[in-house]
Amino acid sequence: xxxxxxxxxxxxxxxxxxxxxxxxxxxxxxxxxxxxxxxxxxxxxxxxxxxxxxxxxxxxxxxxxxxxxxxxxxxxxxxxxxxxxxxxxxxxxxxxxxxxxxxxxxxxxxxxxxxxxxxxxxxxxxxxxxxxxxxxxxxxxxxxxxxxxxxxxxxxxxxxxxxxxxxxxxxxxxxxxxxxxxxxxxxxxxxxxxxxxxxxxxxxxxxxxxxxxxxxxxxxxxxxxxxxxxxxxxxxxxxxxxxxxxxxxxxxxxxxxxxxxxxxxxxxxxxxxxxxxxxxxxxxxxxxxxxxxxxxxxxxxxxxxxxxxxxxxxxxxxxxxxxxxxxxxxxxxxxxxxxxxxxxxxxxxxxxxxxxxxxxxxxxxxxxxxxxxxxxxxxxxxxxxxxxxxxxxxxxxxxxxxxxxxxxxxxxxxxxxxxxxxxxxxxxxxxxxxxxxxxxxxxxxxxxxxxxxxxxxxxxxxxxxxxxxxxxxxxxxxxxxxxxxxxxxxxxxxxxxxxxxxxxxxxxxxxxxxxxxxxxxxxxxxxxxxxxxxxxxxxxxxxxxxxxxx
Amino acid sequence: xxxxxxxxxxxxxxxxxxxxxxxxxxxxxxxxxxxxxxxxxxxxxxxxxxxxxxxxxxxxxxxxxxxxxxxxxxxxxxxxxxxxxxxxxxxxxxxxxxxxxxxxxxxxxxxxxxxxxxxxxxxxxxxxxxxxxxxxxxxxxxxxxxxxxxxxxxxxxxxxxxxxxxxxxxxxxxxxxxxxxxxxxxxxxxxxxxxxxxxxxxxxxxxxxxxxxxxxxxxxxxxxxxxxxxxxxxxxxxxxxxxxxxxxxxxxxxxxxxxxxxxxxxxxxxxxxxxxxxxxxxxxxxxxxxxxxxxxxxxxxxxxxxxxxxxxxxxxxxxxxxxxxxxxxxxxxxxxxxxxxxxxxxxxxxxxxxxxxxxxxxxxxxxxxxxxxxxxxxxxxxxxxxxxxxxxxxxxxxxxxxxxxxxxxxxxxxxxxxxxxxxxxxxxxxxxxxxxxxxxxxxxxxxxxxxxxxxxxxxxxxxxxxxxxxxxxxxxxxxxxxxxxxxxxxxxxxxxxxxxxxxxxxxxxxxxxxxxxxxxxxxxxxxxxxxxxxxxxxxxxxxxxxxxxx
Lengths: 550, 550
Known about the structure:
Distance between the termini of chain A: 57 Å
CATH class of the largest domain in chain A: Alpha Beta
Helix content of chain A: 25-40%
Number of helices of chain A: 18
Oligomer: homodimer
């Protein structure tokens, strides 16, 4: 049987647009003699639809669109497509997360997801009842075991969660195996995490090997707000060899015989380095944030530092230089090179910029606040005023010209609260908020790999917020190598302070860092959505009490 | 048997503080001859602990504290207390949400929660494995059915969720009933929603009546960030009569015989009106936000409008006038009465205030932005600059003097995006963000019930943002009666635009309002935590895609 793996980029909630895109792809796949065309999890509504699933009319529209699709597709082509399904039982959650099989003008079956991820950014048990019964389908003489994303992740080790073995008590493929399937299909919506690419692939390789079955995994591609889906759909042979991996970070369609016994039809997998993947993921994240919300133009504050420079380079790649208009906003504490470096970079990329000094406005704020401040010494309050003036100027440009403000904060400073709410923490989307400072430098080097986009001086000078005379990040923060390592153990690995110290870090320093992270939850609650590239990003996937003690 | 219902206010994560408070209460209850003292759900760590539950060391500390408590309590007193428990099985989630029974110096049993609410603000399946086996305990000759919060909500109608009957497929009390319990205990952490007070009570009344058993429900009291728990613990007789309701919005301890057959021992229930409950809930919400984070002082911008006036009155009640320092920040568009009314209110309450004009700063921003704006006409950009200047001044006061900024936005304007990000949408906590404008007026009347706190003119004048000459809310918004009704149907009831129009509203107006709500998700993503007083507040309980179409 010829199967087509259709890896598409959906817009969440755009049911009609998604249906048309699916239909067009079925027609394309049919030209390549595909008998079954497979689309990703919840393709009809895009993943994740979140609480739109709680609106009856939304789910009805999804179901209607799938039935319409069944009529629209050619009679001789079968389609497997993800979409929500109403639960017909009197008890339990209202929906199933289903794969719908369409053929001959109608819906001929649905397969329901059993394992509902409810951790990190996933909330599937919020909406869906788990499936508890399993059976194969027969299509064109082949017996197929249909699974939905997490259904094949039943063996996953419980990383960072004590030392337990398996998160789930049900094992869908094990339950279907006795019926003797000829192949396994997995429709997925599995978001990108730079360190998980190999782990992900191994899930499917091991399932194929264990059951001696070909496994076809179709992932979604594209970004929906903070979540980036890398695609990378797979055709894995029964020996566990990867016959084909679909494109990363772009739409792709692949048609193949389901019989993958001839080894190595296409075993080449692009050799993606971690930093280049992060780069491409962020570009896609920015691109889709704008394209899917109907915006074209962006702005940001170019400070002369590494974070805004890398953000600008990524934005230029995603949106085109002509859609960017940035501000350089020196104060009395800005160094000359900050302006010179920023101007150089804007000119290199051909990006429109204005230089607006904040000195006079800052002085006027201080004057206005004299009745409140009296003769108190300058402190963080004055530093924050400068940052908020810049935020106000950028938002003014944004409101007047329609350019969305990109936030330029990195994960290290977001973690320890080294940023000003409503100042440099403002923006519609945080591009680097899940990228540690050390990786921001690596991204800068990557961006400059074929020629200088980011001026060398921006990469090599010591980082500084320039909010008071001769300020350096190193005045108040440990070196970034140490800081980033401790943060990763605390945030991604969820180790305690004493467990981190046991890994060889100064206990006092660890306590100080952990405390900085904890007391700044209130700031992070109000940050823009952060493009997620790690296994634990700030935002919806990390839910820590703001008020509390621990 | 004598049972004590201990309704306490816990600090999330303060395991040692909570343990000491529990111990002290056991000693107090023992003086009243209590044989069993019952505490609320997850009392040892406070509810909701959120992702702290993913940290192994956190859960270990909870378990250790419960074992220590078992040793500390008197030998002749039994204690039932909520806390997380490690799942000893090889498969499944890592924890159970348990009630721990302590007696004679040790843990003698645990009872595990079966029904794990995973909707709205609840994410329990994120952390907990559901219990699937049931048994009673025998204590001092009584057989007790122990349940945990949602375990008794198995029959709840699926309000606003199509017309299905029951959310859960298991029914804990039904499964225990054949063993012949003498009483039912329910330990709970059930947050406040003004419209749900009667529904809640009925849950326990109906269970008591159906099984002819006394039901004892112990709720948590106090606020943890946005969630307010009202207490109101219950002793319900086997005939369904309420023998006693514990205090609302404060700690309370009640000792009674478990045999509630003598009718009407204390059937009086305070007659709480909806608005007075909302008022008291918000006061408690502000109080605990400050007390539990170690802050004392607050600030806000007093505009002369109803929202900031009501917020100030609530803050004064919660924190005391001496802990408030507010700013009056007139612009060229402010009316004289705005300042006069605000001064009058501050003087009435004895609150320190400063008047800082924003006119000169605003003019300087416009001058600075001339190179960017050119000769474009004034629009929303200029209005937002004024709002952001005020935000910057308030945050400057906050940073310099340590007063936390209270946000004064109401739910109606938050819903339709009638507010400025980083301007009037700034703050550490939103006091009125779950209160529709109509109810803000009702709160003002309630606050003035024994004398004028809020100047009458603030209540009666037409609402205006005063960001341009002669601006009125009614220029761009429908009247608040209509707006609030439509918003409630859309947000709380989750009806579609056409369903709302079918209730008798102008379809075009409904579409306009629904569209305003939808396009402003990005703003709400960045608002401060909002004190929750309804069944659907903006914030963690409402998860709508920012980027998408529907």
